[in-house]
Amino acid sequence: MGKINTILLDCDNTLVLSEELAFEGCADLINEIAKTKNVPLQQPFTGESLIIEFVGQNFRGMMVSLQKRYGFDMTPAELDDYVRREEDVVIAKLREKLVACPGVDDVLAKLAASGQYKLAVVSSSALRRVKASVEKVGQAKYFGDDIYSAATSLPTPTSKPDPAIYLHAMKQLGKTADECVAVEDSKSGTLSGTRAGIKVIGYVGPYKEAEREKMVKILKDAGAVVIMQDWSEFEDCLAKIERGEV
């Protein structure tokens, strides 16, 4: 096994507590689309109901799923327009209210100070949104230009669980899968990293207590080799992987 020298981090609800804010903005827009397209929703989507269903998927991915489910169509131009609008709505919310995940800043500072690891962000969200997020909470200094977005950085936009964004990030960084560890909080993200051959730490910190036990199982089933309840456990989780125990 190669020596681990690269930590690839998901952004939403791994570095920053953005999912609830983002899904609030997103729900408003999806309800508007449903009205425009005469889609009979049983009840309007809320941030919370969207999260339960689509955590880890980007807006484009959600739209594809919803079109299939409700049998409506959208032209590529329409979809692009909504994707841009969703980005604007969400970025405005994040700039106003976003905070970092508890304990992550200490870990990033320590990793950066050690000089042993390359740090990069690998997200499904649009690049502009990811950059706005890490800038707002003061984490941008750890990543420089090493921020990769499944929605923006690839020739064809995609979303996790497709491993394309992890494969792209490793190629850009000149790293192999056994030099990397990923941190992910969702099933789709964990599958994406695992399918790219990377060992994934599953992070369940931001989930409500009632959801947490279920998420531990979901992330393990998706391939996470170790589960982290809180960022204070990161060093232990990484050490386990580095020793080859998991």
From TrEMBL:
- Record-linked Pfam families: Hydrolase
Report which superkingdom the organism of origin falls in.
Eukaryota
Q: Tell me the GO molecular function terms.
A: phosphatase activity
- The protein's name is HAD-like domain-containing protein
Species in which this protein is naturally found: Achaetomium macrosporum
